[in-house]
């Protein structure tokens, strides 16, 4: 996920240790995506969520 964000948006993502099995993506203190019982969101869904938070208002 960090590589995808870097490739698509030229933003360095910080990787932090979470709970065992946790995989969450936070942008500006907002959780925009996380792994659940069905798995992780697709790359397209993830990037749309990240772009939405970063979009100028």
- Mean pLDDT across all amino acids: 90
* Percentage of residues in strands: 15-25%
Structural shape: globular
- Count of DSSP H/I helices: 2
Main structural class: alpha+beta
Structural domain tally = 1
Order of helices and strands: HEEH
The beta-strand count equals 2
Distance between the termini: 25 Å
What does this 3D model show about the protein?
- This protein has 57 residues and is an alpha+beta fold.
- The chain has one domain.
- The protein has 2 helices and 2 strands, in the order H-E-E-H.
- A hairpin with a 2-residue loop joins strand 1 (24-27) and strand 2.
- The mean pLDDT is 90.
What are the main properties of this structure?
two-stranded antiparallel ribbon; 35% helix; 57 residues; 2 strands; alpha+beta
What's a concise summary of this model?
This protein is of the alpha+beta class.
Topology diagram in text:
Blueprint: H1 2-9, E1 24-27, E2 30-34, H2 43-54
